[in-house]
Amino acid sequence: MSYNQRETPILAELCTLLVEDVYGELAARVYSILARHGRQTLAAVARASYLNGRQIKYGLVILLQQHLVFHSGNDASVTYYEIDWQNSYALVRLGKVAKLVEDRFGKKAANVMSNLLALGHTRIADLKDAYFPPETASDDESDDGVVNGAGLKRKRTNGTQANGTATKTNGVVNGVPSELDDAKPHLASLVNGGGAVNGIHKTNGTTHEPVADDAEQDDDDIGSVDELYEIIQRLIQRGWVRTVTESQYLSPGDMHDMLQQEAIEQENAGVTPTGTKDKDRVHRATLSLKRQMRDDWLTVPKFSQKRQAEDYSGSNKRVKISGANNWATPSVSSEDNLVIRVNPEKIAVAMRTEHLVQLVEQRLGSVTAGIYQTMLRMLESNIPRCYEEWPEPPLPGGEPPLENTIDHRLLVTARDVAKKLNRDLDICEGLDPHAIVHITKKGHVDKYTVLTHPTDPSRLSLDERTLVVDKHIQLLAEDPIHFVTWHSRAGHSQWHVEFEEIAKQMIQSEVENTISARKGALGVKLIRALRKKGKLDERATCNAMMMPANDIRGIINDLTVQGFVQTQEIPKVERREAKHSLHLVWYDRQRAREKLLHDTYKGMVRILQRVAFEREKVQPLLSKAERSDVIGNEEKWLSKGELDALKKWKEVQEKLLLQLFREDDLVATLRDFHGPLVSV
Amino acid sequence: MASLAAPLPVPKEEEALSMQDVISPADALYDKCAQKAQGTVFFQRDLSNMQIAETMGELTMLLQELCDRHLMKLMTLEGEPCWKLRSRSDADKLRRLTPDERLLYHHIDQVQAEGIWSKALRARTNVTQQVLTKCLKSLESKELVQSVMSVKFPNRKMYLLKHLQPSEDIAGGPWQAEGDFDTALIQAISGAVAQYVENETCIKVPGNWNDYAQKKANAQGMRDIEEAPAVKPHQPSSDPNTSKLVHKNSPQYPNSASVAEWVNAKGVLRGKIVREDDMEQLLEMMVLDGRLEKISGTSYRTVLTAIDTKIYNGFVDAPCGNCPVFDLCGDEGEISARTCVYYGEWLQTQSEEV
């Protein structure tokens, strides 16, 4: 089973809460059945719940539309439904995604992105209609925004309010199994409910808050259909948005079965492999099919308008090999029928960039961090995902893999950074003045370490800028985390980033942060000592930490209880007396990582529960404040005490949600940047 | 035999001191040897060269007598016999020992600075535990032997002669005192080393080190407020009184050898010399402590953080991350998010009463 698809009870709880928060009660109830019972058929879901078939179907359609649930292929006799834990968890990131896109592609793209997030997968034509409603659909009911329970208010069972608009069932639903056909009209209305866009485009960051202002969006409105298409195209090219195919609905288990069967047919003439060699060959073929399929998802479709952006650099090299798969995206003549969705893997890449920049800012200062940010964003469009989920297994002979050369698109030169860098950044800051003098060759450094000839960073020539930037990059390279690694001399100096190693260090540093907050510097010292030396007995621990044993014992005990450190007793004599046994302590990064991840999930559940509790306390007041006559006239209708309570509730909610998003950052570091670590 | 020998020499010695002329040849030999540097080892050739004994036979007799009186200690070096002097007071003490004590003393003497574990001592001498304890106690009270806690085996008491420095195997390096790490010393030394490394690898830069904005303003004279230079992001303070540390441009990174050399030259550790291995242990410990970071295989530098406030992570900054009852906390019940006092404190709201 896929590593990412392993669920824990606490994650199930967290995801159910998130689904309820974002998509309302009906979806959450269907979801929670799947979460508790695992892979189910429609009939089994019905048996396990008190909902009727119609309700379950509506619920499932919402979940499918948002890719929260996998289902087995349409050709099988029964369809099984199974939760996609990765995507379900990703609900907590809705706001973050919009921010990430805005930083990179501007406000308009962020707007498109948050609409895509709110709608789930969408036909491009429907998205177009949402922005530029066709004449016929425009006289829809004005409260249409509510239909899209998405991103709006909880406690609104989406299904009941679906007022089917005149839209036909179209390509959007190609991922929905046939047994849900009767729910399709609703689905379609979900997607393109006329003027619904205004209501939902504000999903960023405040998925929990009913937002009712659509006044100030004029500035970053998308002007024309062409512009919209251009934005979509750019997002697809950079890998942020991908086309939806039916294969994306297969659960990892189903996908594995299917591709293994295919591999067996290709490699082993349809005979189930028995020998080790055959098994290995089929295994390799399966993995490569998986990679190939996933890469096909990222194929940039041909857009009918000749609008190839100049900076298109091919998001994936494996794309070219495709073609043999009959279930791959059928080539569409017009992009209008393309169904697209947000690519969650890319989100993780962008989050990793943000984390790394933050880390550098803490360690080396903001200027170096700014330079690192520029470097990473230049690389970003060529990095489809954080880590390879299906890596080629090592060859049996233990030979090193042939691929030692680094793809040139994963390299970045100091000169390119210097060209691309924001001119306002004071790039001289954070460096040794001597280095600046060495570069500018003007004046010298006096005894107070002050430049006799101050240098204005905005007046440096490109060559000088390159040299200064190179100094910063050297700082990055020298750091023990090795944020960049030297590659060659091209473009003054060419660098690449060893994300794998850095991701490991990031996990380690989060574990250390946690321990440092709980147990102070001593705990961190112990963990580092154990990480460096492996399993230690008491005396060796003392030697490494240069401390008396008495001071260490308490910490070892506490960390063992918390699950960060493991202990082991090895008897030396047959009778296994404690006195004659070796008592070893060790630290396993993967275990600590999983423990911390699990605890963080639990902490997030508690935050959501607390939000619910706090809301419950002010519920009467909230319903009053949400009345249509009160909105906008709060001063008039609410007493001073009520206003204060409202303000307090907003503060509390904000604080809790902010913390939730920060915990999500931690989850990203622990879970999304690196595959499972091999134990020590 | 010792009981017989013990009382006899005492009056004899006084005699020797009072009447210079009637000094015995044995004492003469002893005095002659005592003129050499302390701890000298004498071979038969050296002793006969002193021309006190007339013949080889007489020399043997003299040496036998001195050995009986514990004034000399017989040793062998590569099969050849050799002798070493003991001070008169030590010899005196030795003469007063019981045979058991002497036996133990002999064994303890043999291991020299390495020390011997009391259990091993018992195994070698075959005495009972009571006798062993009693004798060791009396030997200690007579200041002939000392006991040291072993560093390798913390529960073993090692015995060695009083005047010897315990070897590093049992007493540890310069960082250890009485079998345990000397925390105060380690702290003081690591502080000094951290400062040294900082001076070597970092440079303090004042806020106004690159005062181009000021200079530009001066050069162009006063300008209208509208023409004021554009706002610069990340503009750090240019106050000359603030300063920050940055990594030096191409510094000489110190390594364990150079730091050890510096510590020894400074004489920070009074009387002790720090070897490279000891220094490496200390530096590695400081890396674990987060005070230094390793740059390449052997060199170190100071850890700098650009931001002063410590940021942990989202989890531990929330109440749950440090909660003592986190594992007991459930969806409902006495301990839950609704009843949590820590949340109440953090958000300054009321929690549900249980």
TrEMBL record, chain A:
Function of this protein?
DNA-dependent RNA polymerase catalyzes the transcription of DNA into RNA using the four ribonucleoside triphosphates as substrates. Specific core component of RNA polymerase III which synthesizes small RNAs, such as 5S rRNA and tRNAs.
Q: What is this protein called?
A: DNA-directed RNA polymerase III subunit RPC3
What quaternary structure, including any partners, is listed in this protein's UniProt entry?
A: Component of the RNA polymerase III (Pol III) complex consisting of 17 subunits.
Q: Which GO terms describe its biological process?
A: DNA-templated transcription
What family classification does the UniProt entry report for this protein? Belongs to the RNA polymerase beta chain family.
- Molecular function (Gene Ontology), one example: single-stranded DNA binding
- Ranges of residues in domain DNA-directed RNA polymerase III subunit RPC3 winged-helix: 511-584
Query: Where in this protein does the record put region Disordered?
Result: 135-173
**A single GO cellular-component term on record:** RNA polymerase III complex
Keyword annotations from UniProtKB, A to Z: DNA-directed RNA polymerase, Nucleus, Transcription
Location of this chain's protein in the cell: Nucleus
Q: Which segments constitute the RNA polymerase III subunit RPC82-related helix-turn-helix domain? A: 13-71
Domain called RNA polymerase III Rpc82 C -terminal: residue spans:
231-506
InterPro entries in UniProt: POLR3C_WHD, RNA_pol_III_RPC82-rel_HTH, RNA_pol_III_Rpc82_C, RPC3, WH-like_DNA-bd_sf
Cell membrane in keyword set: no
Instruction: Write out the biased-composition intervals (Polar residues).
Output: 158-172
From TrEMBL, chain B:
> Among its keywords, does the record have Nucleus?
yes
Q: Which InterPro entries match?
A: RNA_pol_Rpc34, RNA_pol_Rpc34-like, WH-like_DNA-bd_sf, WH_DNA-bd_sf
Its subcellular locations are:
Nucleus
A Pfam family of this chain: RNA_pol_Rpc34
**Where does this protein chiefly localize?**
nucleus
* Entry-linked Gene3D superfamilies: Winged helix-like DNA-binding domain superfamily/Winged helix DNA-binding domain
Q: Name one GO cellular component term.
A: nucleoplasm
Q: Where is this region: Disordered?
A: 229-254
Provide the alphabetized UniProt keywords. Answer: DNA-directed RNA polymerase, Nucleus, Transcription
Please give the biological process terms from Gene Ontology that the record holds.
transcription by RNA polymerase III
Q: Where is this chain compositionally biased, Polar residues type?
A: 235-254
> What biological function has been recorded for the protein in this entry?
DNA-dependent RNA polymerase catalyzes the transcription of DNA into RNA using the four ribonucleoside triphosphates as substrates. Specific peripheric component of RNA polymerase III which synthesizes small RNAs, such as 5S rRNA and tRNAs.
Q: Which family does it belong to?
A: Belongs to the eukaryotic RPC34/RPC39 RNA polymerase subunit family.
Name of the protein: DNA-directed RNA polymerase III subunit RPC6
**Organism listed in the record:** Cucurbitaria berberidis CBS 394.84
Q: What is the lineage of its organism?
A: Eukaryota, Fungi, Dikarya, Ascomycota, Pezizomycotina
